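Side project, low priority. Logging it here so it doesn't get lost.
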Amino acid sequence: MSHIHGVDRAQSAMFPTLVDDYVGENNPVRFIDAYVDSLRLDQMGFSRAESKATGRPPYSPSDLLKLYVYGYLNKVRSSRLWNN
């Protein structure tokens, strides 16, 4: 069983033609994407880098790490860290 994946960036969409067209060529998101994809998450201690064959598939650890790094660089806090 594989991880949950979103829409492929190369897949055509209505506006604009490709999802990848929403992101500029020099946007830091492209660096984050390439950097995290180059990491060996299973060797770095990410315990769920390989998904199990049973149950609902988890989100990809690389996607979650990309989201975390993007949020950190843009000073966006997770709602889970807020104490009321």
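Brief comment: Residues 61-73 form the longest helix (13 residues).
Revisit when time allows.
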